[in-house]
Amino acid sequence: MSSPAPKSPEMSDKSRKYDRQIRLWGEHGQTVLENAQICLINATALGTEILKGIVLPGIGGFTIVDHRPVTEEDVGCNFFLDLDSVGQPRAKRCMQLLQELNPDVNGDYVDEHVEQLIDGQPDFFRSFDVVVATSISERTIVRLSNVLWEQNIPLIVARSVGFYGVARLQLREHCVIETHPDNKQTDLRLEHPFEELKKHMAEAQVTNKVPWLVVLYKVLQEWVDAHDGRYPASYREKLELRELIRSKMDGEQENFEEAIKAVNSSFGGGKPSSVVQEILQDDRCVNVNTESNAFWIMARALKDFVDNEGNGLLPVPGVLPDMTADTNSYISLQTVYRNQAAHDAEIVFRRARQLLKELNKPNDLITDKDVRLFCREAANIAVVRGTKITDEFDKGYHRSSHIASVLETPNSLMGHYIVLRALDRFQADYGCLPGESEAESDTTGMKSIAAKMLSEWGIGTPLSDDLAYEICRYGGAEIHSISAYLGGCIAHELIKLMSYASFDNNATGNSTITNEADFQKTAQIVVASIQKILQNVSSMQRMVNQFGTAQDSPELKQQLHQIRSYTQQLINDTTNQLNDLVNCKERHLKIQRDRLVDEFSTALNAFQAVQRKTVDLEKNAVRQARQASGAAMTLNKPPGSHHSSMGSNYNNTSNSGGSSMFEDNFITGSRGQTQEQMQEEIDLQALEDQERTIRELEENIVSVNEIYKKLGALVYEQSHQVDSIEASVEQTSVFVSEGVQQLKQASHYQNKARKKKLILAVDQAECQNTQLIRASIHNEKARKQKTHVLFNMKFTLSTVTKCSGRLGMLGGLDRLPNLSLQTPAFIFHTKGGSIPHLSKEAMQHFSNEPACFLHLSISNTLHMQEAIKASRTSIAEFIAQSNCATLLFVRDPSESPIPGLPEKELLPIYTRNGRRNISLEQYMTLVETFRPDAYVPLYDGDTDANSSKKREQKSLDRTEKFVEQCLEWHRKSDALQSSCLIGPVVGGYNEKLREQSIEFLRRSDDTFAGYLIEGLHMHGPSVVRMDATAAVPIVGNVCKLLPEEKVRFCFGPYDPIVLLDMISAGVDVFDTSYAFLKAAQEHRALVFSFDVSTTGEQHTTELDTTDSQWAEDFGPLLPGCMCYTCQKHSRAYVHHLYNTREMLGPILLMMHNLHHYTEYFKAIRHHVANDSLPELKKHLAAQKSLPPYEPSKEDKLPIPAAQKADTVEPLEELVEKQNKKQRA
Hints:
Belongs to the queuine tRNA-ribosyltransferase family. QTRT2 subfamily. The chain is of the alpha/beta class. Among the domains are: 14-176, Rossmann fold (3-Layer(aba) Sandwich); 195-380, no CATH class; 394-476, no CATH class; 516-626, Up-down Bundle (Methane Monooxygenase Hydroxylase, Chain G, domain 1), CATH 1.20.58.70; 826-836 and 846-1054 and 1063-1070, TIM Barrel. Strands 20-19-18-17-14-13-12-21 form an 8-stranded parallel beta sheet. Helix 18 packs across helix 19, helix 34 (991-1002) packs parallel to helix 35 (1031-1041) and helix 39 (1131-1139) packs across helix 40.
């Protein structure tokens, strides 16, 4: 037998090799994993799959204990074994093959039976962190469970049989430092500021460049001073604080907005939670000794800090969230928190070293790094204690009531647990697995074993015959796919156990509720348990009412005791199940949980009432029994009272009959004395039984009171949710009150207006009548002439600046009346109706607003026409974006055109299948099918700075002809009456042609809701590097000629500086094709700065994720960015995704670029409002730019065959050819 494998040394290329998983459980978790040792007992298919799942992530080492050789059955179900392995030691062969998966992991094997190790070397398992046992007998489970429980080593017992599998965890105590909670609160110490923080805040000045924490602190102190030193606690008080912050805003200030959002989540830090308090008050923390591990010693040091230097508060974690601020302000504030965190951690570290010295433990047991981590996570530490698997094999299993209640629940898996337990018992009794010889006869044996087990637990619910037959049908065989699935799940839990996560062990598995299905299953069990409790309470009430009557008997009290004990255990189990429902996040599940808590509380009240009544009756019975016993002792004289008469008779008798009389009296007295003593013993025994019953009842009452406390704590922990509901009610009340006041004010103004109208009417009645008649005639003519004017998209102009463009609001759609867009702005560029690389779920990480404006192009939606027509829906409904406005255009700004001259009556469309020519009839039919909210008529805008005057003139002529025909079609179409038109302005770089185009469009000005400036470029990636020197003046002149009350569109992947020139010229709306091209084609992240308070030379406009310099950079793409990508991932990870060509790469880049683009436009609107756009342009121009993107050979895509063709076939001919092929 070889010794267990040593620890695996640290790998030099760890970060490169385990890049993804380090992002899941961190460097500390990976280090712990690399130092862990696993012992596997029996290299079955399930066992090897478990090891595979932990060998690949880099476990330190593993040892396989197995005495069996490889058989043909093993080859059939174990992926790692082949026919050449038959006859070899199974442990050795599996160890060799598993090591091939990861040579950095050390492997070892022991070719002995596990029971030999238990008998001869019980300390063998002490060198392992976790022991996994598969397919072992019931006897071995019990022995191994006892040994590992004493050594405090976690044990996982697993088995796979056919389509069934089971895994049970034995965990005596598991101490967790990094719990990684879902909703981790940042400890900012606003309610308990330390001295350095007070000093820093006193010196800080509130501007739009400081972190929001400074704003919140300053305003909070003002609020506290006005409220007698009290901090805001209720929702209404926090609402007052938010309004106070808002009142101090001057325009759009992002740090103020962030401070307002952070009000609800910034209080309550520093104080230990109830969980942490329990740990600090635990006996293992208070009384550390030589057996204490590092966790409990650090917990004791933490307790000393909280009780002394901390004044009841935990150490400062020193972690700040990202904030919008200038670099110096944020770093200085972060330094204050980090210095205080280091100071607190130093105090805890010194105390921990002192404890190590007192306990004669080595100093290196706890390092400074360990203490810093412990202090940083002190608010979320946890200790989990489980149960011993051996307890499940006891006849009086304490969770039998739980098993009984779950068995009665429909579709529960408790029957599978019972039948798998019966399989262990069958193997122990018969020495083989059920079904190996004959399934039918073994099914009967399995049923009888399961029934016996249930009877031992006092459960009368029978086991399903189908379950017993199903388990026998497999004959103990393993199916590799099932073993692989179960092995992966167990390996995942093993990694959590060894790295940071916690467990809750019970008979049916992990009780953490992770989804709605698990919630509903547990809720059904709780409902069944509550009903059973109420039934038992009713039965107990009937029995208690029979006390003192003719039906009263010892059997009755015994039956009452059994029901009471069963109900008490059922209550304890139900309490634990309710605790399992705490982590649900959906609102409807929380409401359901609260209702269950109320119903359970009602059942507890009824149970408590019956118990108290029973106690009172039992006490009265004991009191009466004692009184009756005292009276009986007085009436019945003791045996010694007969001695005088006996002596008199003895003295006066001298004949031979005296001896007979003496014997008679002596025997009679002895019998009486014995009977009285026996009766007294019976009475005393009865009294002791009654008193014992009373004590049990009182203990039950106390335990139920503890359950009440737990329920109270459960409600308290969720009180912030109740506060949010209360807040909504209060906020609704406030809004209703404000609405009532506004209605009263409006009514007052309306009455005043009526009075003025009446006075004017008296003076000008005749003149007004004449004007009304004329107006009526004029309106009637206009109505007849312009019945086609149905555009419903409105643009409200709010501000026009001298040199920074204008501000406005786009909205007014009949279908989406509440949807609006502040301009200057962008609309989302789409491909096939979807934002490239982003699903609707991914969009939730990017924007909290579900509604938006979408840019749709004919080129990538043409193929959807037949499907949308067949579905009889609009394109918005078809692409599942009913809450978004759809704007349909001819060109895709991100795609380059295919060379070729357009035909006279057709327009070339560049689809994903190549170039297609489309007629006006086909175009308008497609528009009627799509029914967008807005669309542009067919036009010819394929011109750029290099186009000839002849081409520009032809563009204008063809556009005017197309637009006239489209307007005529639009007026007659019933399907398009809810769609508004956008007029295309063409003419290339010829100002006269542009003026002609605008003059033509303004003849039907009332028809158009806005205007599209086209013909500046040919679209595609080349626009990114376009010289806009000539284009900007053209745009400026066009905007001067267009009506101010109409919105102006200009699409293309313009450089951010060119965008500013376009906005200054008067353009309102752009698209996001620039962000898309940078992410999807160039693999670059937008990192340009728009904070003019910083120096432009310090920044770079883009970050090339393909550059190998980022391979070891674990910082975010852009420090301080709040997007999902920068919050969750690093530059190294995005670079890794590019190298491996993972589709997640462009997704993360797209999320970042769109978020950055959104923030950029917010800054633009802020500068437009302040008329300081030139300042922003100067700041951008000073930043460093990367060299122009040059696609590598790998990135160059093959040109579609349709693009290579010299001649382009008309769309009708292609369709006809396709139809002929289908008919053939």
